[in-house]
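One such given next:
>
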Amino acid sequence: MKVTDAGVLRVNLSKGTFVEESVGEDMYKMYLGGRGMAAKLLSDEIDPAIDALSPDNKLIFANGLLSGTSAPTGGRYMVITKSPLTGTIASSNSGGIFGAVMRRTGYLMIVIEGRSPKPVYISINDNTVEIKDAVHLWGLGTAAATDKILQEFGEKRASVSCIGPAGEKLSKIACIINDKHRAAGRSGVGAVMGSKNLKAIVVKGSNPIESEEKDQFSAYAKEKTKMLKENAVTGEGLPALGTKVLDSIINQSGLYPTRNFQFATFEDTEEVSGEALVAKGYLKSNKACFGCPIACGRYTVLPGGREGEGPEYESGWAFGADCGVNDLIAITEANFICNDLGLDTISTGTTIAAAMEMYEKGYIKKEDLQNGPEMKFGSSEAVVYYTRMTGMREGFGDLLAEGSYRLGEHFGHPELSMSVKKQELPAYDPRGVQGHGLSYATSNRGGCHVRGYLISPEILGSPEKLDPQELTGKPQWVKTFQDLTAVIDSAGLCLFSSFALGLQDYTDLINGATGFSMTAEEVLTIGERIWNLERDFNLKAGISPVTDSLPERFLEPIPDGPQKGAVSHVQQLLPEYYSLRGWNKDGTIPKGKLKQLGLENAKVVLVRKTG
């Protein structure tokens, strides 16, 4: 099948039915696929103000335009829905092989509607679709559920995406795990899946994907793969140490959040770094996603034999420095628990860190912990114990499962939640990187580092080195990175490819695959369209532009390290950012801007077959 021949599978769990629909070429030219096209469909079909855990919400598994092709890193897929954690639009990205296998079933997107009266899973074998009983799978961890489903499916080349107990119990920080270890991690997408009584989707596809300009696309794919292999980050640093190559770099740069962002350097970084994972013998091999020459994944084995993927940089930091923990075994164990129970590692670790600060300040009492260990910074026991309790929603874990903002509200101190729009921040102190801080504040899905990764120019010097404390020009950099990231996500490629590839490289791959003749500027406009579409959804959902802000802590000077004394200047940068976006001074979008980007168009998805 051609790249633009994929269809949409719409499954109504309330009725137990499905329909197949086609995707018009104009939709690809407007949104590419993945994040963009699914966001358009979600915006068209639900009221953004609905309860995210109601049957009226929809859950969309979406491949990018290049998912499953020979484009380097073309193994990504996204889960799009309304987030129960933030109330914003959620678009959570994952790798592994699930996206590529799903694409070869012939489906670009799977749209889940309604709510099943009992637990079920969806089985897709090429174009054979079945809704199967999953009562016997409910309560299982993701690894055991995956094994049972594959056994029932009877095909080793299949791939499973599923939730664990956290999603079943509607934890607002629950994720979706595919291939046992890869996570569509953020924004509580696992809770939406659980609210629909959907345990899993298993897919197996055998349809080859052919590009429109086969020879040209093949040449482009080889050229871009070579660029990735020759780049210092994607060809050396990430393969050698994975994303944990960043631990020492970020700590030495003075923006490594420690003890719930109270400090910006961690004294024991050497004990928990990517280098330590190798030196202590826990790392056994690299692990690559489909079609990826980088292979940044870590496959680890702990003393005693427990094994799995991770921890990556963010996960290792969340359970490590942010909790004041220097025990790499405990950090890795907590990561494994998250994979199996289906929890977002960033939100879980940082919620525990927020609880530790509240406990040490006396806002959480010992009796509140329901006989659990004391929540003190540096406690390996607490990190492992409360991660498991969070996933099972047992004891004090029932409160932790709501995320740090709601936990803070419960105890009267939401200001100790290091979050934006109620989603926990990742592993970079925004006081130390002004552009990245603006990206945090304006992210369409709340606290997030992968909607505009300004760490790349501000710290790593790619594509050029910027002074992290300089304000001039940062709003333009943020806008460009946000729009480009929307393109990369919607194309189905990995964000890490942007360390080596630029806008023209992505344009080459898109045109080669489709036969389109878009310019680089036209491709970047697709990213701008997607960004405005998501912003418009959030505004309609009641997310005020006032939330384009950071926690009050970041107005206080960094107390330690190379950037001691630095504060965030987000509010100073916002007016220029809004102006560059063509928005009103209050952060809303004028109708003329929506019209300019073609966002008043109706949906362009046609029903072609029922089942």
